[in-house]
């Protein structure tokens, strides 16, 4: 690591001000940033920790029936407290290991938008809304590609609001070494239709599998997607699986998610 | 009845109290007043010519003590290789110079180019970033067959080619073996890869060099399995320090698995730099450095052929292996694919003709050397896989094909130069089939199929050669070291003992098991015996721990030294008891005169040895301390039979190990609990190789699996539940040539398990109608799925 200073503001306003300064970097749970610093691949002069901001922490039900999760809420807290949305709580309970879940945060995961992370699938699959210090961003607009989001410089995720589906499930097939998602599929059935979001597979990051959504919206059963398949084109191909293998797994995991949700 | 002490008792590991309560003393725990820290600037290029190193900007940076480059080491030796292999034409292997810091060229990613010694590690790292290294990148060669086929890319310009040696064994058998293949009723051929592994001991390597200017003495604290070997190699061949001015200490070591046998550049550097800087110099490997600087393991590409007659008797085996040496020869690298591999190709079978060809190849990768099993897993994997394939081709039961060809009479001289002293392969086969409930497999397969899974049963036999010896033979085979072991037993005046062993414990439990042996010999409590190891200053010259040799060779040395102690103590006792020495008996910690009630306690005799008031000073010296060096007359030959049941998810290719059973013959067993732990751990590593672990380079020599994000270590949930993870060592044919009748157990699990797992996977896939003959390790979900849809 290079030397840096740490600030721990107590309010969103103070955090925004601190991040606005030169060479400042927001720090969520640090599950990506700290290893990056240890490898000397980043050299911010100030780390602005978001972990001291009470208004960004916790899980609650909004008046509109949506589940609201503060941006600095850890995966462990979501796993424990998001009982109103069991599929989301279950997903959070299988991110990383206990140490990761006790430090990593939903806001940090979404701001980083790792192509193999779980939360992007949960958020996009739920059609959730990402709330920042300046605006609300629909999930369909938020994710813009691998490690790329709609966030502007200095913008902080303060909260994420999830509509609660009638049924939902997340299926993750892990990359054996890192145990990130080699392919993860989040399926959510709402009265207005079904959403299917896929992480781990695409070179473009998390995406919605629209053919499966259409088929499942008219018939929420595994049989509905029997004939559907994705191409390996544009899928990640690496040591742990070819694009074709990932494309195949998307189908398998989608069926398993539908099975588990139905 | 389980014993509560002595040989055969599951005494709890006394060393675990300190390991598990944070009271261990590992090399990184050693901090010397005024010590500096070194950071190695390592190559991120696999192959290139160094055209310039500019350290001027780094020299004046805060905390910098001294910066070293390859030019600083021109006056000292290169890293030595401890084994010279002679090729099939009688010529010595090609042996390149292996510099402490790269000089002229870099030859693998991770090779150290420069070293910065500074007050703190962070300062050293800061300064290293200010060093400018100019390298003209050259094409890299990673693929072994390409490296041999063409000299377009030569790893070492001063060698004639990338071929280290082309070894034939036994060359005199080649023509007869070829003839047997022509006459064979059936030939089964298999091409396979034994995947490259990274050992990944929990404790990364550490070296602390210290220098005492007043006495001109150097000390190296290091994470080694064999401190005396390091002292000899580094002192005599690298730095030119006589052994009486050099002390090497390997304190508590957190796992070795082979990769801490070897003498590494960082050890020589820290010892050299401590003198040059007149300060202690410390290096602690990061995990990232470990991936690209610890010697890797395995990495063979093999074609094996098995010839059978019309009655399915094995008539000949022929194999051709390309063995990766990496960019340089690590300390014992040349011996692994030859003498520890070719000599095992008979396995458990009476195949009359065997010919082994091994081509050792230089590539732009990290050096490869011994890793748990070292050559024996590679031999077992190819032999047991080809037998399984032959059984399938012939439509016979793989168990029966093996049984039909078992060696049943001992001693048995194999056609590959070794003589098995004892064994009973039918007994271990019977045992493992009983433990694994093979009879119930059909019902379990049906249950798996009912939930959409494929289930397979894998069987495997293995033999290993442990306690490599004797020294005069290995000398003829090219070893540049002896392979004896030593022990000094020092009895204190009040009756307690200290065993100073040349063996080294880095997880094996010597501090518990060795005292069990002496406790039985003398009849005293284990708690009266302490084991000291790991420090050249207070242990006799010893060869250390590897190759499952500690109890068989080190334990035997300890027995011999204790026998000397007992012989002398009997003389003292005969004096005290005023009886003839031949009438003195030692039992339960007391010496008595046969046929009388006269006796004297162990403690009275030991006290007399050191307070010799009533003592036969005219006949024997005071004191009670003896040393023995034990050089075995042969290897030991543990053997066993393993079974595995897997479930394969045909939708994803995922394999889960549902059951695993092992029946090992280790000869006599000193501590069953420790033995079972060794086998459980060995099998876990073998399952790691079979399903998970793979060290992978791209075509430019970049290491793709350089962290745990991509290199998959086995975890608890990759292994079967404990009630279906059965290890058994009840089949015992004691070794005939060492005093304890022991054979060694450290590597068995890692040798026997990989083919067992792959055999089970193939059986599962075949049961599902997939005509898959082989899957290369690791059998990851992606590979299994691809094989099913290939």
TrEMBL record, chain A:
Domain FAD-binding PCMH-type: from-to ranges: 1-167
Keywords: FAD, Flavoprotein, Oxidoreductase
Protein name according to UniProt: Carbon monoxide dehydrogenase
PANTHER family xref list: XANTHINE DEHYDROGENASE SUBUNIT C-RELATED (PTHR42659)
Source species taxonomy: Bacteria, Pseudomonadati, Pseudomonadota, Alphaproteobacteria, Rhodobacterales
Species, as recorded: Roseobacter cerasinus
Recorded GO MF terms: FAD binding; oxidoreductase activity
SUPFAM superfamilies: CO dehydrogenase flavoprotein C-terminal domain-like, FAD-binding/transporter-associated domain-like
Pfam families found in the cross-reference section: FAD_binding_5 (PF00941)
PROSITE patterns assigned: FAD_PCMH
From TrEMBL, chain B:
Stretches assigned to the Aldehyde oxidase/xanthine dehydrogenase a/b hammerhead domain: 21-139
Pfam families found in the cross-reference section: Ald_Xan_dh_C (PF01315), MoCoBD_1 (PF02738), MoCoBD_2 (PF20256)
Listed GO MF terms: iron ion binding; oxidoreductase activity
InterPro entries assigned: Ald_Oxase/Xan_DH_a/b, Ald_Oxase/Xan_DH_a/b_sf, Ald_Oxase/xanthine_DH-like, AldOxase/xan_DH_MoCoBD1, AldOxase/xan_DH_MoCoBD2, AldOxase/xan_DH_Mopterin-bd_sf
Keyword terms of this UniProt record: Molybdenum, Oxidoreductase
UniProt xrefs under SUPFAM superfamilies: CO dehydrogenase molybdoprotein N-domain-like, Molybdenum cofactor-binding domain
PANTHER family membership: ALDEHYDE OXIDASE 1-RELATED, XANTHINE DEHYDROGENASE
Entry protein name: Carbon monoxide dehydrogenase
Organism: Roseobacter cerasinus
